[in-house]
Amino acid sequence: MNKDKNVKCVTAICIFALICSLVCSIIIKTWIPFVVVVASPVIIAILGILSAIFHRKEKIIVIDKSMFKKDYSQYIDESRFDQDDDEGFIQ
What we know:
- Keywords: Membrane, Transmembrane, Transmembrane helix.
- The protein has a domain at about 1-65.
- It has about 90 residues and is an all-alpha fold.
- It is built from 2 helices and no strands.
- Helices cover about 55% and strands about 0% of the residues.
- It has helices at about 1-30, 30-55.
- Helix 1 crosses helix 2.
């Protein structure tokens, strides 16, 4: 229901702009304001369609195993592994 109300409001604003531009065109005796008001939405629509066509490339992210591999060697204290401490192991 709210969407319907918005459409009616936008339509009313567009019709009001067309009428105002037509009256302005008649008063100043030139068609420039009316042409600008009519042509600008058409130009914007054409530009929108063209941008949608040319920017349609989908961005695909390829997840590779190497993205998840981290180098933890800087965090490992290798001096702990050099000790001959076999107390906890069964021999």
